[in-house]
Structures are given as C-alpha cells and as structure tokens.
Amino acid sequence: MFKRNNKSCLIIIISVLIINTILGCSAKEEAPASAPAAEEEQLPTTREVTNLDGDILTIPYEVDRVAALYGCAYEKVALLGAEDKIVLCSGFHKTYWPWLSVMCSRIDEVPTTIAKAKQVNVEELLKIDPDVVFFWTNVDAVEEMQNIGISVVGVYPGEDAVQDLANMKDQVMVYAETLGEAEIKIGREYCDYFDEKLAMITTVTEQIPNSERPRVYCAHGSLMKAQTKYSNTPSLIDKAGGLCVHKELPGTWPADVNYEDFMKWDPEVIILEHSGESSESPLESFISLIEEDGRFDKVSAVKNGEIYVTPMGAFFWDAGSEVILEVMWMAKILHPDKFKDLNIEKEIQEFYSRFYNYKLSDEETDRILKHLGPETTV
Questions:
Q1: What does the alpha-carbon distance between residue 316 and residue 254 come to, in Å, rounded to a whole number?
Q2: Do the bridges between strand 222-226 and strand 255-256 make them parallel or antiparallel, or are there none, so unpaired?
C-alpha cells in the first residue's frame, strides 16, 4: 500500500512538471521579443543665470557660440578657456589692447560688428546667430536684441553701484556660469588665486596706519579726470596701502576733477589708468604734459617724480581680471620697503601662463610694465 501511494505521487509530480514546462514555453512564445526601451530623458532648452545687478537672465542650456562685445568680454572668455566659443568680438583690441592679439590665438580671425562701445549692428548679429551676447547693461541695444530673441548677459553692475575688488571675481563667475561647467571650474580657480594674492598684500597693508599711507590720485585717461566713489579704484588703493584722495568724488565715472580740489588734495603719488594706446609710451608724454602745464609744479607727486602709468596686458588692468596684478604692482610702488621680496615680474608671468597659457619672455614682461605694446616686425 505504501509503495503504491509513492508511485502515484511520483506520477502526479512528473505530470505537473510536464504541464508547467509546456505552459512556460507557451508564455515565452507569447511574450514580446524585448521590453520597450525607456524614453530618453529630454534636456531642457534653457537655463537661468543671475547677473551682477540681481536680474535673472534666461539663456540657452548649451552655450557654444558667444558674441564677446562688452569691452573686457573677450579677455574673460579667453581666461576661462573658452576662446573657441567666440564667434564675434568688438575689435577694439587692435587700438587699445594689442597684447590680446599675442595672448589669444583666434582674436584677429573673429568677425567684428560694432562701431562704438555701446552700439551694435543687430542685423549682422542675427546673421552670426550667437547663443549668447556679452554686452553692456541698460543701453538701448540690449532691449533691441532681447526683443528679437537674442540672449544678452550684461555683466556690468551699473554706474550707480558701488564697486570693490570683489566685484571682479563676481564678474568672472557670471561669465563662467553662462559658459558652462568646465568654465566654472576655471572661474573658481581664478577666484582662489585672486584671494591668495590679495591676502598676501593685505596681510601687510592692513597693518599700515593712515599716517604712513601716501595720498594717491588715479587719473583716468587724462590728468583732470578720475574714478568716482562708485568705481573699484578707492578699494584698490586702500588694499594696496594708500589713501585715495578722490574716494568721495560723486557722479558717474570717470568724472571731471576741479583744479582747486586737485591742488587741495596734493597727491603724493599720481597714477594714470585707462590711458591711450599701449603701442606708444604714454608715461613720458603724460609727465611732459604735467610738467609743461606749470600749474602743478607744487604738487608733491610732481616735485618728487612719483608719477606712474598702470601697465596693460589683455585689458586695462584697473577694469579687467588683471586688477589683482595692479594691486600687487601698486603696493610695491607705495611701500617698496615692505614688499622687497615681491617679484612683480614673476607674478605677471605666472598670471599669464596660468590663465592665458602664454609664457611671457622677460622682454615682453618689461614692455607690459612700461605700458608698451608688443614689438612689431616690419
């Protein structure tokens, strides 16, 4: 009886297995050849960046074609390693910043479509079809471009915004965040470098009392024009260990300076910024103009020969990413005894090698320090 029951159970088990196998094969035949592929995730077509004035700007998600029309736009895009993205530029470098042609490989091949600093040929711009335009803020051309669907990033805080040196880092990061992830990484590297070099200077200058700080006047383009309290010049001079005599100068900048105020300030150091073409030597001509005038003979800086012209490289040092070089250069001029170990030539060479991938020779470095353009061969 026991054996018969075992045999019956075995038969039942085998029958069940056979049925399951048949059903399984049938199920496989009815199943689709493959599961439907998951839908690919769609990338957004736009994204947002925050401008220096707090405005939220909408730009294309991918930025590969850039019109660098704002004065210092080309040098910043190049600093961030994105020169290949530039499809249009202002062209002003040929007159004002000839070193940019030396340090940047493509700039002289890039089309230009701008006649004046705040004007742009919108029709020509449309033909170029940039993803984004770096331009001024709050000028008529910006609204015109935006109305026809051109994304404009106006990386300029405005003439009524008080600036300091930190604004330059903010500017660089607006450019970087507009361009993409790779550029953001370089932008952060620049900010770290900026902070490191500024700390190197201010660790010393913050200990200098006002009684030991020279009175500094920074002329803008010509002697009787200067940056106002809204510019970064008062901050720059302070960090370098000086007293900015025109730090309360009102109005948009640069502003005209009253002769009586200038004589009352009696600057001990005069520095000319934003000056002329760097293909000439403006220092000698600047000094000659002051000396020939005769009205400034009693000014301390003139009597003691403390007159300088800011060096210029990829852009005006006082208004571009090289402003950190100006802080070091100015600190060494104002307090040579406290910065004996500061090798400004080495600092300049390090900066351009690190951020423009260009190795300056000693002769080129000397020419930049003397506000001379690159030597040209006939």
A1: 14
A2: antiparallel
Task: Find how far residue 378's CA is from the centre of its chain.
Answer: 33
Distance CA 104, CA 99 (A): 8
pTM listed for this prediction: 0.85
What's phi and psi for 140, nearest 5 deg?
Answer: -55, -35
Tens digits of per-residue pLDDT, 194-250? 999 999 999 999 999 999 999 999 999 889 999 999 889 999 999 999 999 999 999
Average pLDDT over residues 20-48: 59
Q: What is the pLDDT of residue 100?
A: 93
Instruction: Give buried/exposed letters for 253-277 (b at 16+ CB in 10 A, else e).
Output: bbbebeeeebeebebbbbbbbbbbe
Q: Are strands 152-153 and 222-226 parallel, antiparallel or unpaired?
A: unpaired
Residue 317 CB coordination number (10 Å): 24
| DSSP-assigned letters across all residues of 196-218 | HHHHHHHHHHTTS-GGGSPEEEE
Alpha helices in 120-180 (DSSP H): 122-128, 140-147, 166-179
Q: What pLDDT score does 101 carry? A: 93
- CA-wise closest residue to 310 among 271, 261, 357, 366: 271
What DSSP line would sit under 51-100, residue for residue? -TTS-EEEEESS---EEE-STTHHHHHHHTT-GGGEEEE--THHHH-THH
- Contact indicator for 355, 325 with CB cutoff of 8 Å: no
